[in-house]
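Q: I'm writing up a methods section and want to include an example of the input and output format. Could you take the sequence below and give the corresponding predicted structure tokens, formatted cleanly so I can copy it straight into the document?
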Amino acid sequence: MKEGDAKVDKFMTSSMKNVNGWNIGSFFGDRAFYKGDWLMRAGAAKVGIYGNDAVEVTYPYTRTDSVGEPLDGSKHNYTLTFPAGSSRR
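A: Here is the clean output for your methods example:
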């Protein structure tokens, strides 16, 4: 089980695209979306079972700050800032 879990973790971290410091991937969909890729399906279940597909939503995430240090809310306060007029609907 540990080997399988490590394989799923490795797949998930290597299958993300980095966009402005945020990790983004598309791992959710119906049976046709997975095309028999059980590793992707296991990863999707592990990181967010019942997630919506990429047509509906994007789930960006990060574990590090802007200088590459691990996020630690006990030591730092973090702020997300969006440029004025950048809202997308």
